[in-house]
Amino acid sequence: MKQEASTQVNLDELRAWLINYISRRCDIPAAELHSGIPFEEFGIDSVQAVEITAELEQEFHIPVEQTALFEFNTIELLAAHVSSCSSSAPTTK
């Protein structure tokens, strides 16, 4: 699902997207991915972290800092951060 920069991204949608993306990327069943577990426990390294932030930007059309996965190191924290930042993202018309 694509979002415009002026639209706040739904927290549940972000959480679900991150779980599905990490499940595919790390070959871990989605049911085993708990939103409070740090990314490094899933085996996500710095290169993958940057790739995930780029995918988030592309999927939801919002800016995401390349260091976001390190600062907000769980699915829950990252989803909440990106959702809150999306509401203040500049409108692109």
Number of helices: 4
CATH class: Mainly Alpha
CATH homolog superfamily: ACP-like
Tell me the CATH architecture.
Orthogonal Bundle
In helices, the fraction of residues equals 40-55%
What oligomeric state best describes the polypeptide chains here?
Answer: single chain
Largest sheet: none
Beta-strand residue fraction: under 5%
Q: What does this 3D model show about the protein?
A:
The chain has 93 residues and is mainly alpha-helical. The chain has one domain (11-86): ACP-like (Non-ribosomal Peptide Synthetase Peptidyl Carrier Protein, Chain A, Orthogonal Bundle). The chain has 4 helices and no strands. It has helices spanning 11-26, 46-60, 68-71, 75-86. It is globular. The two termini are 19 Å apart.
Outline of this structure?
This protein is mostly helical and 93 residues long. It has helices at 11-26, 46-60, 68-71, 75-86.
Write the layout of secondary structure elements.
Elements: H1 11-26, H2 46-60, H3 68-71, H4 75-86
Helix pairs in contact: 1-4
Characteristic terms for this protein:
single chain; 93 residues; mainly alpha; Non-ribosomal Peptide Synthetase Peptidyl Carrier Protein, Chain A; 4 helices; globular; disordered N terminus
